[in-house]
Amino acid sequence: MMNLKAFSFSFLLLLFFNASMVETHGFRSRKLYDSNMLTEKENWFDQNLDHFSPTDHSTFKQRYFEYLGYYKPPEGPIFLLVGGESEQIGIGKSFYTELAEKFGAAIVSIEHRYYGKSTPYKELTTENLKYLSSKQAIFDLAVFRQYYQELLNAKYNVSETENRWFVIGGSYSGGLAAYFRLKFPHLTCGAYASSAALIAIYNFTEYDQQIGTTAGPECKTVLQEITHLVDEQLNSDRQSIKELFGASKIDNDDDFRFLVADAAALSLQYGFHDFVCDLLVNAKKNGSNILEAYADYVKNVANQGIFGVTLEYYDRLYLKDPTSGNSAYRLWWFYICSEMGYFLVAPQNDSIRSTKLDERYNLDFCKDIFGEGVYPDSDMANTYYGGRKFAGSRVIFTNGSQDPCRHISKQTSSKDLPSYMVECNGCAHGIDVLGCPYAPEDTKGDVCRQAVSEVRQKIAQDIDMWLSDC
Ligand SMILES: *[C@@H]1O[C@H](CO)[C@@H](O)[C@H](O)[C@H]1NC(C)=O
Ligand SMILES: *[C@@H]1O[C@H](CO)[C@@H](O)[C@H](O)[C@H]1NC(C)=O
Ligand SMILES: *[C@@H]1O[C@H](CO)[C@@H](O)[C@H](O)[C@H]1NC(C)=O
Ligand SMILES: *[C@@H]1O[C@H](CO)[C@@H](O)[C@H](O)[C@H]1NC(C)=O
Ligand SMILES: CC(=O)N[C@H]1CO[C@H](CO)[C@@H](O)[C@@H]1O
């Protein structure tokens, strides 16, 4: 959701992707084809609610899935797929599970605390959200790792055995995988962090700038024109412009502005440049109404939740409600608002989004939803995890050349912390895991598929090297 948010894939996207990209972890895909599921059988264990309290020993039920079909007991490695900002419904086939098959690994996948069924509270009041943080989440992984190791030992009648663990995630959960390796290096042999949200940034202006670069000058100009037209019409007739976009229920005008900006950004973040830009550039060239063309696009994207988010994701009145239907949105915003920032503010110069989407907008949004005193401390997050000076080891980072979130991932590459750039038109968020946004027979996708395949080989080599030396 950060707009990272958008780590999401839902049904329609599958039309564009080949089957192997139907994938969950970290990228918030929720709707999977059953045939691609390796398991949907739930398992539960008791997790500590607060890892940092000396006196409170309450627990909650945390959900996980396991798949042992590829496992070569008793020495095969264990791949821990880290749950991110969505509910987990099982383990689906993906590049991650291909790797597990290659290495004879057991696969375990754990749902993130508070999301899906792993929630300690029914009502997500701000008070009840106090145990939702990345710190608690990585301690969850540590506790689970010990628990599951014993469970597996019992299952195979071995004792005192320690399998080689490897943690894997993408986007937000890619960041968690890297943080886990950083804080608990003795519990893993390494981590693979795809398009990871690693560095906290308060004013995340690079996001809008990268969207502009990815869109290209022609499309960017049309997007800016749309922003301008929307701003004008909000001043003259705010109801009818919202109606045009099918978004009458978003009362706050700036929330609406955010929706207008984000709907285009989502396509670009996921490599679907043509999906939005061809439409707009054509409409502009043939003299049709660009606002109407774009409004139709936004309705399509937001009503159907094509990128995993619907109108409610932008609507503070909805988000405010601690019992609202889609709790994942509220949970994600709490993380943004209380910890990391990633405020998608308009850059000072040449922005695509409305300049009204500034720091103040974001702070008010957080305050309206969660109450006074909830605001992020990005500096503190970077102090805790390292930020640009991330000092972990044996973490593989990847980033897509067109992904706006690459700017919060690892900036440099070194032997112990390799960072691979997957470079092509369409190489965007999670590209190495999700695969190319082209149909298999589309020759336009050849460059992309080649780039993905090369990086995947490097990833497998690194994992091989670290597992054999662990
Ligand atoms: C472990 O031991 C139990 C009891 O001795 C036995 O029933 C089971 O088949 C064994 N499992 C494996 C995987 O060897
Ligand atoms: C964020 O941007 C605002 C201007 O929009 C500026 O006043 C503020 O100092 C910036 N904050 C940080 C932490 O960079
Ligand atoms: C102009 O382009 C838009 C977007 O591609 C298309 O939907 C529309 O039919 C075109 N109109 C004309 C008159 O060609
Ligand atoms: C503002 O953006 C334009 C277009 O990208 C660029 O040409 C110009 O140099 C920028 N100005 C500043 C002050 O950064
Ligand atoms: C922001 C960014 O692009 N980060 C890195 C992505 O990966 C390449 C290749 O290692 C790096 O050079 C980039 O700095």
Describe what you observe in this structure.
- Strand 7, helix 3 and strand 8 form a beta-alpha-beta unit.
- Helix 5 packs across helix 6.
- By secondary structure, the protein is an alpha/beta fold.
- It contains 15 helices and 10 strands.
- It folds into 2 domains: 21-200 and 382-468, Rossmann fold (3-Layer(aba) Sandwich), CATH 3.40.50.1820; 202-375, no CATH class.
- Strands 2-3-6-4-7-8-9-10 form an 8-stranded mixed β-sheet, sandwiched between helices.
- Bound molecules: 2-acetamido-2-deoxy-beta-D-glucopyranose (NAG) (5 copies).
- Residues 202-203, 345, 358-359 line the site of one 2-acetamido-2-deoxy-beta-D-glucopyranose.
Which descriptors apply to this entry?
two-stranded antiparallel sheet, disordered N terminus, 2 domains, Rossmann fold, 11% strand, globular, binds 2-acetamido-2-deoxy-beta-D-glucopyranose, 15 helices, 470 residues
Low-confidence stretches: 1-34
Instruction: Kindly identify the CATH topology of the largest domain.
Output: Rossmann fold
Taken in chain order, the helices and strands follow as: EEEEEHEHEHEHHHHHHHHHHEEHH
Number of structurally distinct domains: 2
Largest sheet: 8 strands, mixed
Strand order of the largest sheet: 2-3-6-4-7-8-9-10
Termini gap: 35 Å
> Which small molecules are bound?
2-acetamido-2-deoxy-beta-D-glucopyranose
The amount of helix comes to: 40-55%
